[in-house]
Specification:
The chain is globular, with a radius of gyration of 19 Å. It contains nine helices and 13 strands. α1 (11-23) packs parallel to α2 (48-55), α5 (143-156) runs parallel beside α8 and α7 runs parallel beside α8 (221-241). It has one domain: Spore Coat Polysaccharide Biosynthesis Protein SpsA, Chain A. α2 links the parallel β2 and β3. It has 291 residues and is α/β, with parallel strands linked by helices. The strands form five sheets. Strands 4-8-5-10 form a four-stranded mixed beta sheet. The protein has a three-stranded parallel beta sheet with strand order 1-2-3, with helices on both faces. Strands 6-7 form a two-stranded antiparallel ribbon. Helices cover 34% and strands 21% of the residues.
Length: 291
Amino acid sequence: MLPALDEQATVGAIVAAIRADLVDGARTGGPALVDELVVVDSGSTDATAAVAAAAGARVVQRGDVLADVPPLPGKGEVLWRGLAATSGDIVVFVDSDLEDFTTDFVTGLLGPLLTQPGVALVKATYDRPLRQGETVLPAGGGRVTEIVARPLLAMFWPDLAGFVQPLSGEYAARRELLERLWFPTGYGVEIGLLVDAYRAVGLTGLAQVDLVRRKHRNSDDAKLGAMAAEIMQVVLDRLAREGRLELSTPPATALVQYRRAGEEFLARSVDVTVHQRPPLAELRRRPALAD
C-alpha cells in the first residue's frame, strides 16, 4: 500500500515496478507475490492518481474509505484508511516519493514474515542521502530520527534502540497486529506503531531488514520541526497510555516558527495537532470514534 500526496514524479515508476515484478511476474517468470497494489491518494492537486492508475495500481481516494468518518489531514490518517481499503493477511507500506525504488524493498520486508511465524512487524533500515545544493551526503538524512526519535526511544523504550530507522516509511506487518493498533494521524504514526507493536508482541515479534539506501526528496527545516512536534506528542501520548506520565494539561498544538524577512523575523503558527485513530478491529465493534 502506497500513501500519496502530490507524488506524480515518482509514484508511477514505483507502481510499475511492483506490478511487473510482483503482481504479473513478467520479469522474473515467477508466481505473483503481491495480491493487492493500492495507492491511497490524500487529496493530491497534481496527476498522482492518474499516473498511479495508468501504471497499474488501484487508486483509492482517502475520503472514499470509511466514508462515514470525516477525513483528517496527515500521513497516519492515510495509512489507517489504506489498511481499511485492503484485505491481505500481510500489508506492506511503501512511501510514494522514493527515487531509486526497486522491488527488493517489498520482497525484503516480506521475507521475515513469510519465513518466521513469530515475527509480526518488519521495519526497513537503510542509508539516507541528504542533498545540500549540489552536494549529496551519503548518510546525512534522517535528521528527525537522530535528533528526536532515537533519543526518546533510548530514554523510554531502550529495547527499541536497536532499530536503525525507527521512522522508516517502509515496513510490513501482519493484518492481525495492525488492526489492533492505534494510528496517530500525522508524522508520528511510525513511532506510534513501533512502540505499540512492541507492547503487543514483544521485541521477538519485531524485525528489521537492511535495504541499503533510500533516496527521496529531503524536507526543509520548518517541515522537520513540525514533524518533530508531532512525534513528541505521540511519545507523550504513549507514555500516558502506559501510566508512566500524567499531564495536568494537554500539550499545546500550535508551533511557532520564524523566518527572516530583511531586518525582521516573521512568525508563523503551524497546527501540529495529532489525533488518534482507533484500532480497526475495535472500530467495527462500536458506532463512534474517540480520540
